[in-house]
Structures are given as C-alpha cells and as structure tokens.
Amino acid sequence: MATVVDLFTYPVKGCAGTPLDSTHLTPAGLAHDRSFMVVSTDGVYRTQRRDPRLALVRPTISADGVRLTLASAERGSGDGGDGVRGGDDELHLDVTTSAPRRDVDLFGATFQGIDQGEEAAAWLSDFLGVPSRLVRVPPEHDRKTDGLTPGTSGYADSSAVHLLSRASLTQLHARMAERGAPPLAMDRFRPNIVIDSRPGERHGEDWAAAPHAEDRIRRMTIGAADLGYTKLAVRCAVTLVDQEAGARGGPEPLRTLAGYRRAAGGGVVFGAKFSVMRPGKLSVGDEVAVEEWGDAEA
Hints:
Layout: E1 2-9, E2 12-13, E3 18-20, E4 22-26, E5 29-30, E6 36-39, E7 57-61, E8 67-72, E9 85-86, E10 90-94, E11 101-106, E12 109-115, H1 118-128, E13 133-136, E14 161-165, H2 166-178, E15 193-197, E16 217-222, E17 225-234, E18 241-242, E19 247-248, H3 254-257, E20 269-278, E21 280-283, E22 287-293
Parallel strand pairs: 2-6, 14-15
Antiparallel strand pairs: 1-3, 1-15, 1-22, 4-5, 4-21, 6-13, 7-8, 8-10, 9-10, 11-12, 12-13, 14-20, 16-17, 16-22, 17-20, 18-19
C-alpha cells in the first residue's frame, strides 16, 4: 500500500512551490498549479534554466484564486498592510481575468495570457534583474497535452501532475553516495505528489518500496480523483538549481541519473507525469490505489 506524503502546488511557473495538506485536483492539475507564468517583455516564458533566481520567489494564492502574493525568500517578508506592495520584500496582487489577452510563448507553442499589470512587472523585473511581466492563464484556456493519456494543463511543461516516490529518491541518493555526492532535497525535482509506503508496511509485496514503481502505473485513484499515466518526466538543468539558494549547484543529480535512468526514446528520466481523468479532493495521507499497471519505459 502507498499513501500521499507530500502535496505541492506551484502557482507561478518556475517559482517556489507551496506545500499543502489538502487541495482539489482540477482537470488542469492541483488547484492553481502553474496558473501564472513569468515572461519576457516579448512574451517568452522564463524558467530556472536561465533565471535560477525564480526559485527564490515564494508565491501564495488565496483559495478562490483572486489574491496572489509574491514574497522574496532572499529578502524576507514585508508589510503589505496597504494591500498593494509591502516594500521591496512582498507584493500583494488582486488577480485580474478581464485585462486584454496577449500571446505568450511556452516551448515554442503560442498560448494566451492575461497580463497582471505594472506592479507585478516592476517587482519581478527588479528581483530577477531582467525586464519581466506576469501573466495568468485565461479562463477560456483550452490546452491539450500529449502522452499515453491525453489531458490538459495550465502553464506546466506538459501534463497536469508530476508524481514521484520517496523510494526513487532514496535509490538516487544511494547511487550519488557511491560517487561521494551528498543527498539532495526533493524540491530539486518539483513534484506535485510524493508517495511512500504506508508506515509499518515495508514488507512483502510493498510496491511503493520499489524504486521507480511510479513508472509502471497506468491508472490510479487517490482520494476522490483518478489519474492516468502520460509519460516519464524528462529531467533538465532545473534539477541542478539549489532551490534554497536560487543558483546553480554542481553536476548532480543529472550526472548520476545519466548512468542508470536514460529512457529508450532519449533523455534522462525521473518520476512520472499524469493526466487527470476524474477531478476530486486530495489530501496528505490518502491511499494510492493502482487500478492498472504497465511496463516501464526506462
């Protein structure tokens, strides 16, 4: 048996995640996940691959999605009591969905975004050191994602949900230790759902104790929601960014992963992506019930 041990949503693509005790899984992923994106003045998405300081932006969003706060992990929290801008440390925004749409580029694909105004642009430009804007997914956003189980998502790289097991990370750490490398935090991989064996059940046919068991899941139920496998998660240079420092670290984990986690179709893989087949509430502690298994692609 396996359970959910961590839930994370990333309201602003590329920025820090928000840990959750419970949330609603929508057709596009965890509530508000990647519903905002930082872009250049030309509308091209920003990513930690080029702008690692994005990791130091700590977004929080109200449950109804109408209030967004951007806080600097580097500077600390400010006093936003006037409801606008808390010094240089914190920005409070009333989210708009009625402003004009603009074209935005995500991996070469064109989508629409709703610009969130000059205050957000100024705060992010100052913090990142490059001219930037903040956009929101429009309500009419109708993106189709690929993979074994097609679905939809906001501004995520691809599928709506990224799932990773603690067993997979434990094996990676063991292999890194053989090279003399220290362990890395789970946040290097930016998962939405982290699963582990139910406490006291690490014996017998405990599938969740096997590294990369998530690769073989084809359909599962968690809480009130159903998810369908789309593809393996191909890892990139974002995994090299120290999420606490907002800067590139060393060659790990890609150096070690490249030695044993290369997919047949190319790329270094770690974790799996899923589409939402049935929305519903998710909570830490929910049981993960696998309805269908398949063969691993790596």
